[in-house]
Amino acid sequence: MKVDFWQLSRDPAEKVAALIAGRVLGEGERLLIVSEDETQIAAISQALWEAKPEAFLANGTVDAPHAERQPILLSGQCHAANGANHVIFADGVWRDEARGFARSFLLFGEARVDAARACWRSLDGTDGLERSFYRQDGSKWTKVA
């Protein structure tokens, strides 16, 4: 299991989620994006449709028809009806259901730094876990741990 911590500073969660989503789909995988904030879910959906001028990142919400067919599924709950094995927690809230995914991404801003640090520590000693920490350095992302 891989867990990536992404500390947001310059770019909003919807832009970073679209960046990660493009990479996940490029690997032939499916993705679940979780946020309990309906406004954020709508902003992420819009960002996914507009992410690439030459191609959109198809997505849908868990309550829409044919949710199981969506390559990117947006939900307030951590349940991958689309069979995704990658999950993004766009609202900065870790959920233990992440342990059922091959890779998890925790996006968090300044307000959730302490919670992210606590989450990092809580994962210490987890068998088979690979953790990474990314921080924005100007316009590019840098792996710092």
Going across the biggest sheet, name each strand in turn: 3-4-2-5-6-1-7-8
CATH class: Alpha Beta
Form type = globular
Mean pLDDT: 94
Q: Provide the β-strand percentage band.
A: 25-35%
Structural class call reads: alpha/beta
Unreliable residue runs = none
Main sheet summary: 8 strands, mixed
Give the structure's gist in a few sentences.
This protein has 3 helices and 8 strands. It has 145 residues and is of the alpha/beta class.
How would you describe what is shown here?
The protein has helices spanning 13-26, 38-50, 113-122, and strands at residues 2-7, 31-34, 60-61, 72-75, 86-89, 103-108, 130-137, 140-143. The protein is of the alpha/beta class and 145 residues long. A hairpin with a 2-residue loop joins β7 and β8 (140-143). α1 (13-26) crosses α2. The longest helix is centred in the first third of the chain and has 14 residues, at 13-26.
